[in-house]
Amino acid sequence: MTEVHPVTFSSHAEGTTLPSPTPEQRSALDAAQHDAGALRDVAARWPALLEAWAGLAEAADEPVASYAYARVGYHRGLDALRRAGWRGSGRVYASEVSNLGFLRSLNSLRLAAEAIGEADEAERCATFLNELDPAWRERLSS
């Protein structure tokens, strides 16, 4: 007699969700909007706040600065994802508002890499975004 074993999926099959900014952080981000100076102050106060790095990357007036800010947000985001239980694969959905800082940083890295002619890096970022959330393009503005 053949024994049947049920298939189980990892607990992260539904996706990993990053922690939300605190109310104080959210207020500072809302006040900073697209003001690069104010966003720098927010990032200096809370260096692990992914939305601050994403905002800086999006507000940068030239691609090398955008690339640098986005790279910080991306790497800080990988650290945060690992702390949240992500193990290098699985979904990180843009529909989860708390994931947007990381995904915006990764998208900004993609755009900045394109702008400076680093096509391989831009393609790696696009592939990673597609692996994290196939619907990212509908949820993030590029």
Task: Give a verbal description of the structure.
This protein has 142 residues and is mostly helical. It has one domain. Helix content is 60%, strand content 0%. The protein contains 7 helices and no strands. It has helices spanning 23-32, 36-45, 50-59, 63-83, 100-115, 119-132, 136-139. α1 runs antiparallel to α2, α2 (36-45) packs antiparallel against α3 and α3 packs antiparallel against α4. It is globular, with a radius of gyration of 17 Å.
Task: Break the fold down into its secondary structure elements and pairings.
Elements: H1 23-32, H2 36-45, H3 50-59, H4 63-83, H5 100-115, H6 119-132, H7 136-139
Mean pLDDT: 91
| Count of discrete alpha- or pi-helical segments spanning 4 or more residues | 7
The low-pLDDT segments are 5-12
Q: State Rg.
A: 17 Å
- Work out the oligomeric state of the chains in this entry: single chain
Q: Can you give the helix content as a percent range?
A: 55-70%
Task: Note the gap between the termini.
Answer: 56 Å
The secondary structure category is mainly alpha
The major beta sheet can be summarized as:
none
Q: How many strand elements?
A: 0
User: What is the percentage of strand-forming residues?
Assistant: under 5%
**Helix and strand run:** HHHHHHH
Shape: globular
Number of domains: 1
